[in-house]
Specification:
The complex is a heterodimer of chains A (163) and B (461). Chain A has 4 helices and 6 strands; from the N terminus they run H-H-E-E-E-E-H-E-E-H. By secondary structure, chain A is α+β, with helices and mostly antiparallel strands. In chain A, the strands form 2 sheets. Chain A has a 3-stranded antiparallel beta sheet with strand order 1-2-3. Chain A has a 3-stranded antiparallel beta sheet with strand order 4-5-6. In chain A, a hairpin with a 4-residue loop joins strand 2 (85-90) and strand 3. A 7-stranded antiparallel beta sheet of chain B has the order 6-5-4-10-9-8-7, sandwiched between helices. Chain B has a 7-stranded antiparallel beta sheet with strand order 13-12-11-17-16-15-14. Classes of the chains: A alpha+beta (163), B alpha+beta (461). Chain A binds chain B through residues 1-5, 7, 84-85, 93-101, 103-104, 128-135, 159, 161-163, and chain B through 118, 143, 277, 279, 302, 306, 391-402, 405, 410, 413, 415-418, 430-435, 437-438, 441-442, 444-445, 448, 451, 453-454.
Chain lengths: 163, 461
């Protein structure tokens, strides 16, 4: 059995492909800076042309790789609502599976940055008394995120336990 | 509160004394408090002054000493004045729900309510300067963020003890005038054993080397006179002394309101950990302790960390026992987790192929459980053995890095509240990791359904 497969009776609910769009926009914005550096290398006369070309090639290669990786990483996210707990899986190289019992959730946040809002995605962030829990589901359509937050809050209320 | 009103929570039972309630039922801390705070700046200023004087200029030495003393006195008066205003504003009392309320603040008023049903620990601490005049502070921590605690500075030692008893009694759900529950001393750590254990650690050796590395270049560069400055600036080896001073006379006593920990040479602390508040327990055994069979016992207790005060308190508050032989430590832990026999739990070792990922510690890795607790073991040079009651599991994680993936391994983390104890089953068979994680989540939720640890002394409704 694969450690990061969904549980026997369930399947992973995927996150929205719009998450990939928002991350690619962030990547493009970051590359505006890289582009400026590369152009500067070509314009400054003291820099050998070869160095500038090598930097430009590396920058393009990293860009293509990151662009492709974003798609794979978005597809690697998955979550499953089980009767008593929430499962969240993510990662390709470093894979993670988090199991959060509903009774242990202390609060649920919905967060969306400006690029995410523009692309129409939001992140549902879960908090327990442990700082290491690290359970977040990014890339949810705002309506789905709000619904999930309410569902989680309701389930948490029903199964609330002390510390 | 009028005298005729019924008083189910016993607010009228507070003993008379300097912190006796005012007409509105509120109490104040001891009037010497501002002075204790004020005098605390004096040694600091004097040390700075002396080190400046020792830099030379023998002709103006007398004047310099006078100026230093003057500055110290002036600052002490200013601090005392500020603290006096704060003292006038600080009141505390128990409200009609039986919870502790603290009002404080001069410019920013603060009204804090500590829900005693979520009490995590009560501590009576006497810092050295307060101890000289017979005062102590009371620290109360409840579950939640760093805002869920209160420090009441200062009360006389007897009043602080009474307040502690009252808080614990209210949290336990018995009459607030129940007084101090009788106690039974379990362990006292002998000073010799403490010194030996502190010396027989890699950390101490490292600190010693660091100290030498600091002193030698200073002496070469500036001559022996600079030694004074180095000592004033604090040398690394001092942390071992402060650890010794903090753990000196470490005593654990058992009572109905939980375990009581007492320790300290200069600054004494009396801490109470109510039953059922311990989130996880960790045994640590550095390499050199193994021949003597010593272990240190550390705790995760909700509400004790996260405020990053650092220094001395950061490690004492998490230590149940600084050093003890294994049978003694096990007996103490048996009081924290009654009815649990840790040694009878069979540990399942990590698969043999984990040697490709963790060649040194792989055969020390293991995890096991019974119907009450989960036990996980790791570490070769310093051995870690961790225990977590099922109902304290916050969440469970499975992680796998590329290297682990190549050999078909995955680690399972059992998240506890922030603290020194990390419960993890490293490098399990990847095929069984998810099963292990889901099974633990299941055990945790069924254990929580049975759990009843708040208001522990109250009969069930």
């Amino acid at each position: 059995m694969d450690a990061f497969a969904p549980s026997d009776e369930g399947t992973w609910l995927p996150v929205s492909a719009a998450l990939g769009r928002s991350r690619r926009i962030s990547l493009l914005l970051a590359y505006v800076l890289v582009l400026a550096v590369v152009v500067a290398l070509f314009l400054v006369p003291d820099v050998p042309r070869l160095v500038a070309i090598v930097v430009a090639v590396v920058a393009v290669a990293v860009f293509v790789w990151a662009w492709w990786l974003i798609g794979r990483r978005v597809r690697a996210w998955g979550y499953e609502l089980r009767p008593d707990d929430l499962l969240v899986a993510r990662g390709i190289m470093f894979r993670r599976l988090v199991i959060v019992p509903y009774g242990r959730m202390q609060l649920v946040d919905v967060v969306a940055g400006p690029i995410e809002r523009w692309c129409g995605v939001a992140t549902v962030q879960l908090h327990t008394a442990a700082a290491t829990t690290d359970a977040a589901i990014p890339g949810l359509v705002p309506e789905v995120a709000a619904e999930l937050r309410d569902t989680l809050a309701r389930l948490g209320e029903q199964r609330a336990a002390g510390l | 509160m009028s005298g005729a009103a019924p008083d189910p929570f016993g607010n009228a039972l507070i003993r008379p004394g300097r912190s006796a309630p005012g007409p509105d039922g509120r109490r104040k801390v001891h009037p010497l408090t501002p002075l204790v705070h004020g005098l605390r700046v004096v040694p600091v200023i004097v040390v700075i002054g002396v080190s400046l004087v020792s830099r030379g200029r023998p002709e103006g030495e007398g004047a310099a000493v006078l100026i230093t003393l003057g500055v110290a006195l002036g600052l002490a008066i200013v601090v005392t004045g500020l603290r006096y205003v704060a003292w006038r504003r600080l009141t505390f009392w128990f409200d009609s729900d039986g919870d502790l309320r603290v009002d404080s603040g001069v410019l920013t008023r603060q009204e804090r309510r500590l829900q005693l049903s979520r009490l995590q620990s009560v501590e009576v601490v006497a810092p050295f300067n307060a101890r000289l005049v017979g005062l102590a502070e009371v620290r109360v921590e409840t579950a939640g963020s760093s805002h869920s605690k209160a420090v009441l500075q200062f009360l006389t030692t007897a009043e602080a003890q009474d307040l502690r008893n009252e808080i614990v009694a209210r949290a336990a759900g018995v009459r607030p005038d129940a007084g101090e529950a009788p106690e039974q001393v379990l362990v006292t750590v002998p000073p010799g054993e403490l010194v030996a254990s502190l010396l027989m650690r890699g950390t101490t050796v490292l600190l010693l080397l660091l100290t030498v590395a600091v002193i030698i270049p200073t002496v070469i560069a500036a001559g022996p006179a600079a030694l004074g400055l180095v000592v004033l600036g604090g040398v690394p080896i001092f942390t071992v002394f402060s650890e010794f001073s903090s753990y000196y006379g470490f005593t654990i006593a058992r009572s109905d309101d939980g375990l009581r920990l007492r320790h300290g040479l200069l600054r004494t602390a009396h801490q109470t950990v109510p039953p059922g508040r311990v989130q996880a327990i960790g045994f640590v055994q550095p390499l050199l302790w193994r021949r003597r069979g010593w272990v240190r016992v550390r705790l995760n207790v909700a509400g004790m960390s996260r405020d990053g005060r650092g220094g001395e308190q950061a490690y004492t508050e998490h230590t149940l026992l600084p050093v003890a032989p294994w049978p003694v430590a096990r007996a103490v832990v048996a009081h924290v987790l009654p009815g649990v026999d840790i040694e009878s739990i069979a540990l399942e070792p990590a698969p043999a192929r984990s040697r490709w990922r963790a060649p040194i510690q792989w055969h020390q890795l293991g995890v096991g459980w019974d119907d009450r607790v989960l036990v996980a073991k790791r570490g070769r040079v310093t051995r870690h053995w961790t225990v977590m009651p099922h109902q304290r599991t916050q969440s469970v994680r499975v992680t796998q890095g590329p290297w682990q993936r190549a050999v078909g391994l995955a680690s399972v983390w059992f998240d506890s509240t922030p603290g020194p104890v990390k419960v993890v089953a490293l490098h399990r068979d990847a095929a069984q990791a998810q099963e292990l994680a889901l099974a633990q989540a299941q055990r945790a939720s069924s254990a929580r359904a049975r759990d009843r640890t708040t208001r522990w002394a109250q009969p069930p409704p």
